[in-house]
User: Which sequence fits this backbone?
């Protein structure tokens, strides 16, 4: 069973960001990385054409609950804050993603604006601002036309491969660093995308899951037939899906306007579970637990974030932001969550299993 070790709250200085840009419904403008000693975490947030870095102090503390068992946050210290100078976008950034390449001693930060302009920067793993390789890629149409939500994701075992989604253009561009590999053309407006893990075909990096309208579509980058689309799962017409995530065991979860989380087995694309109406409002963020893939973190439009066991449809704990979420993300290799509200508040939750707690006590 998973439980929250602590819930911290920090405030973004008004001198750094006076009035955050509103962004889109999807909360994809935050990424985080935990320091090696786990004493602090580095949070990257995007507002307007800029990316900012915050260093927030962590540490265990007594977890208190309020009405309806909601966790009550404890204020924590903001150690440092600065502007990341290697992201010169000309329009509002829609999504940022952080790839943890610790084996090489650096991080990879990707950002994309409404017109599909992608910028990828290598950052120092210790959190220091050291200049490293930065490259940018313009879409084939040079960003002409109406801007919209754009998203990106890195391949989990090949960080140089990047997928960039553009909603209004109905395109998914695949890049190997700054080289364009191919373009996928979904039927509807893409809203989220993620590379699959541990599919069992020996080459999981080639499979991409995309939510488009009310459908979940699966694409194999090695195939040419049907444009690369190998499977479609249709949801309720009119109920847009806003989030897709993949677990370490290969399962795929989707959620959206129907307030339901659906879990699929990628080997047969059969439904494993449906957690019906688990959220009061639309679901715009999902992340499987690293500690236990049977648990999933769900973020909704009503400021609430909760953790639950999807097989049993049981909630474990939850907390709320104090205003609309502008960014929400989970650390790639740890059960640490962070969310950014338009009030300027940053919420960080550190989660542990019962086994971890017993080990730490002894």
Assistant:
């Amino acid at each position: 069973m998973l439980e929250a070790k602590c819930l911290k709250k920090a405030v973004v200085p008004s001198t750094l960001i006076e009035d955050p840009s509103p962004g889109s419904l999807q909360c994809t403008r935050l990424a985080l990385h935990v320091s090696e000693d786990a004493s602090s975490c580095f949070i990257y947030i995007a507002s307007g054409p800029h990316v900012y870095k915050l260093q927030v102090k962590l540490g265990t503390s007594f977890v208190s609950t309020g009405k309806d068992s909601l966790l009550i946050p404890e204020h924590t210290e903001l150690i440092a804050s600065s502007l990341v100078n290697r992201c010169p976008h000309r329009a509002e950034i829609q999504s940022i993603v952080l790839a943890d390449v610790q084996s090489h001693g650096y991080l990879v930060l990707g950002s994309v604006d409404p017109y599909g302009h992608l910028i990828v920067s290598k950052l120092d793993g210790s959190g220091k601002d050291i200049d490293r390789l930065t490259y940018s890629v313009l879409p084939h149409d040079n960003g002409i036309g109406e801007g919209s939500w754009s998203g990106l994701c890195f391949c989990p075992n090949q960080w140089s491969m990047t997928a960039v989604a553009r909603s209004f253009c109905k395109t998914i561009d695949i890049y190997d660093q700054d080289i364009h590999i191919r373009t996928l053309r979904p039927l509807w407006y893409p809203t989220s995308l993620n590379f699959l893990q541990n599919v069992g075909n020996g080459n999981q990096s080639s499979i991409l899951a995309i939510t488009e309208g009310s459908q979940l579509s699966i694409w194999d980058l090695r195939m040419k037939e049907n444009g690369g689309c190998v499977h479609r799962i249709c949801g309720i017409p009119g109920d847009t899906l806003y989030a897709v995530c993949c677990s370490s065991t290969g399962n795929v979860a989707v959620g959206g306007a129907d307030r339901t989380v659906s879990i699929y087995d990628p080997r047969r694309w059969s439904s494993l579970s449906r957690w019906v109406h688990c959220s009061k409002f639309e679901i715009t963020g999902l992340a499987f637990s690293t500690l236990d893939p049977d648990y999933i973190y769900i973020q909704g439009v009503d400021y609430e974030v909760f953790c639950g066991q999807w097989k049993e449809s049981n909630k474990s704990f939850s907390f709320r932001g104090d205003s609309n979420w502008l960014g929400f993300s989970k650390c790639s290799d740890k059960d640490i969550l962070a969310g950014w509200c338009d009030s300027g508040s940053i919420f960080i939750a550190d989660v542990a299993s019962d086994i971890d707690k017993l080990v730490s006590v002894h």
Q: What stands out?
A: The first strand starts at residue 2 and ends at 11.
